[in-house]
Write a structure and sequence with these properties.
Number of helices: 12
Radius of gyration: 26 Å
CATH architecture of the domain at 35-49 and 89-207 and 229-324: Alpha-Beta Complex
Order of helices and strands: HEHHEHEHEHEEHHHEHEHEH
Strand content: 15-25%
CATH superfamily of the domain at 35-49 and 89-207 and 229-324: 2-enoyl-CoA Hydratase, Chain A, domain 1
Shape: elongated
Number of strands: 9
Amino acid sequence: MNGFAAHYALFLAEAATLVLAAIALAAGLVALARRKGRHPGAIQVTDINRQLEVAGDRIEAARLPKKVFKNLAKQRKAEHKARQQEEAGPCSYLVDFKGDLRASAIVALREEITAILQVAKPGDAVLLRLESPGGMVNRYGLAAAQLLRLRDAQLPLTVMVDSVAASGGYLMAAAADKIVAAPFALIGSIGVIAQLPNFHRWLQARDIDWEQFTAGQYKRTVTVFGENTEAGRAKLREELEEIHARFREFVHERRQLDIDKVATGEAWLGSQALELGLVDELGTSDEVIRRACQQGRVLQVSYQRKMTLQERVRMSAQAAWDGIWQPPSPLG
């Protein structure tokens, strides 16, 4: 009896933990949906040319004699004032995208692209500093579609990858006119994956039934709590193959490379990716930006919005959850 009581208590503790977690998540989502006083976002613009000049001035202030630097500072101030009075020439707009599993940065990306399209002139260009290991297919597909808006507006887009552009991240990069990657950046991973835990046997061992009702033969192919069937698994594999085929088509259309050789799900270092045609040039984003500053103005455009406490808590919890479990949605 004591053994039975101990097992029963353990079961109650496990069940209570699951229920409390579900309630907490639901309460958080409801509170977030009903929040009031959401802080509106705003576009922030940074003059990168001026930023680099200031950094150089600080070094020269320490390197040069005080009198020499003072004369140099006056000269540069006059040059800066003269440039401000000149008619604006071609401009490069710098945008950052740091991707997570759900491509959360797409919220800012769409605002930044819309703002750029409002003011862009012939001769302008866009530089995207991209870092992403990939994530949910529908979200990264939308991010790539946002970048294609630049192509439709005939704004040349250069994607710069310093560390990683894999899977959904590479899907975004493939939308560019030019891809520059650091020699040891991870590039590619043109593949699709879906994985999820299944608690069916755990529930069955505790005499707990899980019932699910659907309308439509393939409304649900695999499930977390129910018993998965071979037919459901086969349908999910079919869906993954279809998504992979679309992924391959998109990359091949944009890059014109040997797609069978690169669409294996493998990721390559930047130097290997150059040989395979996945990127166009080796280099860091810093060097690309510096060259652009030498040729004209570079303005960094970023959409900033102050998040509420509830949103910060939700995002922290979501990041932790994504770190231990990938949702059943296909991942690119």
